[in-house]
Amino acid sequence: MQFEGFTEEESQELSKAGIIIGTLEQIKGWARSNSLWPLTFATACCGIEMMGTGAANYDLDRFGIIFRASPRQADCIIIAGTITKKMAPVLKRLYDQMPEPKWVVAMGSCATAGGPYVRGYSVVKGADQVIPVDVYIPGCPPSPPALIYGLNKLQDKIRLEAKGKKVR
Ligand code: SF4
């Protein structure tokens, strides 16, 4: 790894000595991306896959991802399931209660675009109609590895944004 403003040799010497150089924002981004605490928002069948992802077989803890039950302790929300028009204000309220910085993962076709019930009179056509979404995970339902892949992409996004790069 070559550090900004250092030659390759200097960077190698620093790395050998176990020294990491970065801006405070980059170090904060690195720390945040490795300690994501998602609030669970399971409204339908995708929630079961989300719970399975957090169980022993897939072990989300190894990525520093630990589910929280309170929005006050969460920096990420995983929306797993259908969002109805009645539920949308609750989602918005929970999102507003989360401290900054915060991120949103829409898991499954219901949360990303309304899913199989998209024509229903009561169904919101995707979480981004209510709050901003950072990562969309397709599938009905997405498997645990797909959710893990999406969460890893969110971690990449947090680290890249800390470097000042715009990620969509
Ligand atoms: S995307 Fe499919 S599996 Fe997930 S909540 Fe909707 S209907 Fe259920």
TrEMBL record:
Gene Ontology molecular functions: 4 iron, 4 sulfur cluster binding; iron ion binding; NADH dehydrogenase (quinone) (non-electrogenic) activity; NADH dehydrogenase (ubiquinone) activity; quinone binding
Positions in coiled-coil regions: none
Key word NAD present: yes
Catalytic activity: a quinone + NADH + 5 H(+)(in) = a quinol + NAD(+) + 4 H(+)(out)
EC number: 7.1.1.-
Reported cofactor(s): [4Fe-4S] cluster
GO biological process, one term: electron transport coupled proton transport
Pfam families the UniProt entry points to: Oxidored_q6 (PF01058)
Membrane topology annotation: Peripheral membrane protein
Keywords: 4Fe-4S, Cell membrane, Iron, Iron-sulfur, Membrane, Metal-binding, NAD, Quinone, Translocase, Transport
GO CC term (a single one): plasma membrane
Record has Translocase as a keyword: yes
Annotated ranges, domain NADH:ubiquinone oxidoreductase-like 20kDa subunit: 45-154
Binding-site residues, [4Fe-4S] cluster: 45-46, 110, 140
Superkingdom in the source lineage: Bacteria
Cofactor details (free text): Binds 1 [4Fe-4S] cluster.
Subcellular location: Cell membrane
Entry's family note: Belongs to the complex I 20 kDa subunit family.
Described purpose of this protein according to its UniProt entry: NDH-1 shuttles electrons from NADH, via FMN and iron-sulfur (Fe-S) centers, to quinones in the respiratory chain. The immediate electron acceptor for the enzyme in this species is believed to be a menaquinone. Couples the redox reaction to proton translocation (for every two electrons transferred, four hydrogen ions are translocated across the cytoplasmic membrane), and thus conserves the redox energy in a proton gradient.
Subunit note: NDH-1 is composed of 14 different subunits. Subunits NuoB, C, D, E, F, and G constitute the peripheral sector of the complex.
Name listed for the protein in its UniProt record: NADH-quinone oxidoreductase subunit B
Native species: Tumebacillus algifaecis
Gene this protein is translated from: nuoB
